Amino acid sequence: FLPETMGRPLLSLVLLTYNTRDLVVRCLEGLYEQALSWGWQIIVVDNGSTDNTASVLAEKFPSANLIRSEKNLGFAGGMNLGLRVATGQVIALMNSDVLTSAETLRAAAEALLSCQKAGALSPLLRMLDGRPQPFAFGKDQSPWYLLARGLKALLGLGPMHQWDVSQPVEVDWVSGACMLVRREVVEQVGLLDERFFLYFEDNDWCRRMRKAGWRVFYDPRFEVIHIGGASLPQRSRASEIYYQSLIRFTAKHYGPVMAWVIQILLKVYRGLRSRRSGSGPEG
Q1: Taking the C-alpha atoms of 94, 100, 105 and 111 in order, what is their torsion angle to the nearest 10 degrees?
Q2: How far is the CA of 39 from the CAs of 11, 102, 120, in angstroms?
Q3: Which residues contact 100 (CB under 8 A, 6 or more apart)?
Q4: For the chain, how are helix, strand and coil distributed in percent, rounded to 5?
Q5: Which of 29, 65, 97, 125 is within CB 3.0–4.6 Å of 226 for a Cys-Cys bond?
Q6: DSSP string, 158-195
Q7: CB atoms inside a 10 Å sphere around CB 273
Q8: How many Cβ atoms from other residues are within 10 Å of residue 134's Cβ?
Q9: Distance CA 184, CA 215 (A)
Q10: What pLDDT is recorded for position 1?
Q11: pLDDT at residue 231, rounded to an integer
Q12: E strands along the chain, which residues?
């Protein structure tokens, strides 16, 4: 499903946008000319936007490969449109609300290729205020891990991970907001699972990579800004999608019985959390 080409570029950038016209323009302005001068492939997937994104991008960035879906296919479905035409040695998946430079992406791609069994790498994600983004990486979302994380959250004991790492760490998964993947990995494990409309498609993909023998890294030597939440549905709807994807992930990897158990525990967890203010979908 990935095209075979001669003389592949170092990097194919697959940039996904949904009603974030101004952000995707800002994102591309920071790397477009340099990326083209290095012969990179720039793929922009307009995931059913209604804000005139496609025409603006076609005018401002004519050398980009613009793919337009008539409807919002979700993160996995949209990214897969770009993955199918990507020809680079490394494929960088990126949200439209990520700000970075071509130099940073090149250094990260070279680091990925330098480690023989490294399948995927994420740079450190920082929010606009400079703080490291929470839930940028983690351990496999097993039922036992989820139980421990939920208990810590209910007891006010803080998150399961330290997000502001200073050295590269091998992890079970990294966020799809900015993920660099070796081409051979995509050829081996396949595309993103489109049954996950939003959330957990990156967890699932990284888990499949690791099961195939590849390693996943979060590398703070490279940093990007992730504004976050720009194309998400309203908060309550985002929470529902998150929990639906969590149940789907559990069913896929741990079976229907465990998914049912997690579903029951989630009802209890959400009931307790609803008594507190400001709780996010990740818990």
Answers
A1: -100
A2: 8, 11, 22
A3: 27, 30, 31, 94, 123, 178, 224, 225
A4: 40, 20, 40
A5: 125
A6: --SS-SS-SS-EEESEE-TTEEEEEHHHHHHH-S--TT
A7: 16
A8: 14
A9: 13
A10: 53
A11: 63
A12: 11-17, 41-47, 65-69, 90-95, 98-99, 118-126, 137-138, 169-171, 173-174, 178-182, 215-226
pLDDT at 276: 65
Residue with tokens 């195939």: 212
Pairing between β-strand 90-95 and β-strand 11-17 as defined by DSSP bridges? parallel
Residue-wise pLDDT tens digits, 55-90: 999 999 999 999 999 999 999 999 999 999 999 999
- 7: three-class secondary structure by DSSP: coil
Report pLDDT digits (tens) over 109-130: 999 999 999 999 999 999 999 9
Q: Where are the beta strands (DSSP E) in 33-76?
A: 41-47, 65-69
82-112 pLDDT, tens digit per residue, is: 999 999 999 999 999 999 999 999 999 999 9
**Residue 53 amino acid letter:** T
Q: Locate tokens 């307790």: which residue?
A: 272
> pTM of the predicted model, to two decimals?
0.90
Token readout for 35 is 């990326």
In angstroms, rounded to a whole number, what is the distance separating the alpha carbons of residues 107 and 44? 21
pLDDT tier, 149 (very low <50, low <70, confident <90, very high otherwise)? confident
The two structure tokens encoding residue 246: 């969590």
**d(C-alpha 133, C-alpha 170), whole Å:** 17
Burial 186-213 (b: 16+ CB within 10 A, else e): beebebbbebbbbbbbbbbbbbbbbeee
Q: Is 46 helix (H, G, I), strand (E, B) or coil?
A: strand
